[in-house]
Structure formats: C-alpha cells, structure tokens
Amino acid sequence: MTSIADNIWRVRERIQKATLAAGRKPEAVCLLGVSKTRSARELRQAARAGLTRFGENYLQEALDKMAALADVEGIEWHFIGPIQSNKSRPVAEHFHWVHSLDRAKVARRLNEQRPPGLPPLNLCIQVNLDAETSKAGVPIEKVEELAEQVAQYPRLRLRGLMAIPDPDQPATSLQQRFHELAAAMATLRARHPDWKQLDTLSMGMSNDLEQAIAEGATIVRVGTALFGPRNTTKRSNRQQSIDSLDGANR
Ligand SMILES: *Cc1c(COP(=O)(O)O)cnc(C)c1O
C-alpha cells in the first residue's frame, strides 16, 4: 500500500514533467487535492505531507472537515461542486475559491454574502464543453456575459475558467476540449485587458492532467491519484439525492 505522501510526490512529479514538456515554468501549475468523500484524518495526513489546497464538492461535508482541521494553518479551501443558490452563504463565508460558478444569481448572492473582513472571493466560471452529455456549466458562448457580471462585483475576484470535459472520449478530443477552454480564456483576456487577475485555467484531473497542462492548465484538480479510488456505490446514491435537491432549487 502506498501512502498519501508517496502519492503526492508522484503526482507532483507528473505535473513537473508535463509542465517542462510544455515549455512552461515548473511553478506555473498548482495542485488542488480533491478531497470529497475523504476523512479529516486523510486530509490531515496530506497537509502534513505539504498539500495545502483542498477541493470539496459537498458543502456540509466540507464544513465538517474545516472544523476538524481548524488547528492546521494555511489550508486553502476550494469549492468545486454544484452551488445551490439557497446555500451560497456558507460558501461565501468559508471558502477561498469557487471553481463552479455558472449562474448570475449565485454570483450576485456570493458578492452580497462575502464577509467584509475577508479578501474578495476568488472565482472561476465553469464552462460546459460537452453540451450533449452534461448540464453543469455555462455554454462557451455565454461565458463573456457572465464574466462581465462577475467583474462588476467588488467582493468577487474573477480568476478564470474551469471545465470538466467528459472523460469518456479519446485523448485527442479530450485535449481539444482543453484547447477550447484555453482559447475562451485568451479571448476574454484580449477583450478585457483591464481584468488583471484573470490568470487561472482550472482543468485536468487524475487521468488527464498531462493533456490539460499541455494546453495551459494552471490548477489541476486531482483526487484519485492522491487518495485512491472513491467508494462509488455510496457516493452515487448520495450524489443522486444531492442532484435532485439541486434540481429542485434551480
Ligand atoms: C472528483 C472531481 C475531481 C477529481 O477527479 P479524479 O479523477 O478523482 O482526480 C476533479 N474535479 C471535480 C470537479 C471533481 O468533482
């Protein structure tokens, strides 16, 4: 059995290789440890081994782990799951980043709810690159409209774009999806040179981080390769009930 510390080391090595192969600077890509379904104990081990950024998909689960790890300094919490608009307040109050913004209404609420004592909330807009197979995220042609809304909010800091392309496609077409996200980002930056903080492409997971880095990823979101396989049976039941709740609240 390999330890979380070994896995972190291996994933960092993959990131470094891919970054160098792409002719990019080694520090150009951040590792976000996707810790959904993982225990506070596992996160603590990962933090001891130097992982400082955690991505969580489920609000209550994340809040419980934040409380359990309150004594660990320097953890950065990223919300990467679907946001129900009636549950945006705890997200605004407790997270450093949100990767999964896809509605203007949620942006407005996060802006109102971000506590004045905290720095602005870092945000990525989630883009839907596979319109036929997925419903999360905004279609690529709607990105600019939502970005313009976000950019006017003082308590939000628009950092970039995020996508979860359908993993069940050949590597070349997957890489093409990453390329499309990078192109959308380049367009935004060209049209809004005053948006200085637009520096983030959140793309790439355990199985495709190399292709994402080749196309310019700056944050890779890695779960399985760090923590091992998730318990999918338990998860899919729970995810279903979360999805139906989410649907009811839209
Ligand atoms: C679960 C998840 C990941 C991590 O996926 P792995 O294949 O386990 O690396 C990344 N991003 C999001 C949004 C996720 O929900």
Can you describe this structure?
- The chain is α/β, with parallel strands linked by helices.
- The protein has ten helices and nine strands.
- Strands 1, 2, 3, 4, 5, 6, 7, 8 and 9 form a nine-stranded parallel β-sheet that branches.
- Helix 4 packs across helix 5.
- It is globular, with a radius of gyration of 17 Å.
- It starts with a helix and ends with a helix.
- The C terminus is likely disordered.
- Pyridoxal-5'-phosphate binds next to strand 9 and helix 9.
Overview features:
250 residues, alpha/beta, 9-stranded parallel beta sheet, 10 helices
Can you give me a brief rundown of this structure?
The chain is 45% helix and 17% strand.
What is the topology?
Elements: H1 4-21, E1 30-34, H2 40-48, E2 53-56, H3 59-68, E3 76-79, H4 88-94, E4 97-101, H5 104-113, E5 121-128, E6 138-139, H6 143-151, E7 156-162, H7 171-191, E8 200-202, H8 209-214, E9 219-222, H9 224-227, H10 232-249
Parallel strand pairs: 1-2, 1-9, 2-3, 3-4, 4-5, 5-6, 5-7, 7-8
Helix pairs in contact: 4-5
The chain binds pyridoxal-5'-phosphate (PLP).
Pyridoxal-5'-phosphate is lined by residues 34, 36, 57, 80, 164, 205-207, 221-225.
Structural class: alpha/beta
Average of the residue pLDDT scores: 92
Number of helices: 10
Oligomeric form: single chain
H/E element order? HEHEHEHEHEEHEHEHEHH
Instruction: Report the major sheet.
Output: 9 strands, parallel
| Ligand names | pyridoxal-5'-phosphate
Tally of DSSP β-strands: 9
Q: How large is the share of residues in beta strands?
A: 15-25%
Residue share in helix: 40-55%
Radius of gyration: 17 Å
Weakly predicted, low-confidence segments: 235-250
The shape is globular
End-to-end distance: 43 Å
